[in-house]
Specification:
Blueprint lengths: L4 E4 L3 H10 L6 E5 L20 E5 L11 E4 L6 H12 L9 E2 L4 E2 L4 E2 L4 E2 L4 E2 L4 E2 L4 E2 L4 E2 L4 E2 L4 E2 L4 E2 L4 E2 L4 E2 L4 E2 L4 E2 L4 E2 L4 E2 L7 E5 L2 E6 L3
Parallel strand pairs: 1-2, 1-4, 2-3, 5-8, 6-9, 7-10, 8-11, 9-12, 10-13, 11-14, 12-15, 13-16, 14-17, 15-18, 16-19, 17-20, 18-21, 20-22
Antiparallel strand pairs: 22-23
């Protein structure tokens, strides 16, 4: 097996985006799914790219899990589950998960990020932001200076996060939401699409509206 890159999981919605964003040096990639196709609700949607030769493999066909580059092939709900499954089973070091940042996005000097970052087209990251592991920034997102996004935070399209905000682990910000300056949002929280967050939101809740209010607990 000669691929330098393996895509882990198989969200075909995400794959259509990821394959289109891959740097030019990745002309071949392997795809390894941890769920059968018949359990994959996205499988009916096209995702192949003429620029990348993609070959599907089983886990036991990979001889060395320490040397290749990896990307999690999901940018939605299944991302954390896929990452934790493969990391725990195969002891993949963080350094092997490459960042995927679209060239149309703007990332400022002083921007620090962890393993497996994904930034889609036309997003802007201001100076001195700090992102944790496996953060997802979808298209046309604006994130203000000195903002901290913790592990597995997912920011949906068109979100604006003002400066000096802090977003906890595994939190999702819905499409088109606006987070005002100096706001803290706790871990495992969902902010509904189009919401305007004007004050701190606790962990483990679902909040939405303008201004955003806690509606209920975010039960697992």
């Amino acid at each position: 097996m000669t691929e330098r890159l393996y895509l882990l999981g198989k969200s075909t919605f995400a794959l259509s985006i990821i394959l289109d964003m891959l740097p030019a040096e990745y002309v071949e990639a392997g795809l390894i799914s941890n769920i059968p196709d018949e359990e994959n609700s996205s499988i009916a949607f096209p995702y192949m790219s003429p620029a990348v030769r993609l070959t599907e493999y089983s886990e036991d066909e990979v001889v060395d899990w320490q040397a290749p580059d990896f990307i999690i092939a999901s940018i939605g709900k299944s991302r954390r589950r896929i990452a934790e499954y493969f990391i725990a089973k195969h002891d993949i070091p963080d350094v092997r998960f490459i960042p995927l940042i679209h060239p149309s996005s703007v990332t400022a000097n002083g921007f620090v990020y962890g393993a497996g970052l994904h930034i889609s087209p036309l997003s802007v990251i201001a100076p001195y932001c700090t992102f944790g592991r496996f953060v997802v920034i979808n298209r046309q997102v604006s994130i203000g200076h000195h903002t901290v996004l913790h592990d597995y935070v997912s920011i949906n399209p068109g979100v604006t996060i003002s400066g000096i905000c802090d977003i906890g682990d595994n939190t999702t910000i819905g499409a088109g939401a606006t987070i005002l300056d100096k706001i803290r949002i706790g871990a495992n929280t969902i902010i509904g699409a189009g919401s305007v967050v004007t004050k701190d939101i606790p962990e483990g809740v679902i909040a939405y509206g303008s201004p955003a209010k806690v509606i209920r607990d975010n039960n697992p």
